[in-house]
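Researcher: Excuse me, tokens okay?
***
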Amino acid sequence: MKNICLLGATGSIGESCCDVLRGHKEKFHLSAFSFHKNVEKARAIIQEFSPQYVSCGDEESKERLSKEFPKITFGVGSHGLVEAATLEEVDVVLTAVSGAVGFTPTLQAIEKKKTIALANKETLVMAGKWIMEAARKQNVKILPVDSEHSAIFQALQGQDRTSLRKLVITASGGSFRDYTREELEHVTVEQALNHPNWSMGKKITIDSSTMMNKGLEVIEAHWLFDVPYENIEVVLHRESIVHSMVAFHDGSYLAQLGASDMREPILFALGFPERLEMKNEKPFDLTEIGKLHFEKMDEERFPMLRLAFECGKKGGSFPTVYNAANEIAANAFLDGKIRYLEIEKYVAFACLQHKEKEDLTLEDVIEIDKRTRNFVRKEIEYAQSQENEMRR
């Protein structure tokens, strides 16, 4: 029996994880979880899984639930996330929260020697150097949950790493993969959230459409698998059946294929090294797919992917700026404050104005992350005020 901490239980990945746990109650126990605002979903999870600890997004939610469930310990905010992730009983922490908020609880869980099932790519993008160093020092496994990184991890099992030529990360292309740059000028939030293959949270769906999500995955893959950026390739694969591939010096490729279902990489990570049966799922049938297509990525069409490689190669805190600027800009688009193509503009501008600090420390990275968010937030507010002035 593995005791699981699920950070981000009411999000799309959290829901998929709960379904996996539901199908293997003899293997897993949900000891702790966190949620942001959805009290109704959190209540249902508590009633079904009976955890020891629950971290709430705010004090009001904590007050409500603690009265209903007096035998459970409740926490709140960032402190609650850390308490949940470092609970003594916990064996595996699945980090499924969105954004840089996942960094601190993941690092603290590593320090407590918990196995990490990582679905929060921003943690490695923001501070991959420190996360991987801590994992090596504590002899902690970081098991990737993103379908692309899980595919690479699976394909590399039992392989001689010295014969590896490159990693090939597949990309669906997102909601606007067939749009021209001109056609993107006036797209809406509703259109952006209509992903052709995957059912995901709002922020990650926006990131998928801008190819920011793939850029983050490139940086994450660099840290997870210790592969130079020159040996990482992204290809357009519309069907999202081949989740990623690895290529070797002898010319051969190994690929991992499966349905567009996040339960599969979650089950693999939680069960590792054992492969467990996927419950309540129709067996995957390639004959129903018929054909698989692969195309070169157009970096002119998707400039955020090109920028990811540039920031990754520069290293230091450039990936931190790349991620932080995007979190603010993507959410601003979701809130109707900026237009779709302005996401790219604000991210590129933040990276352009960034000056790298010498002898970078983890504390510096955390400060740069905060400073970048404030910078982009103020730039957006200023642009809005100028636009409002023009209308007057």
In short: The chain has three domains: 2-145, 160-260+292-310, 315-392.
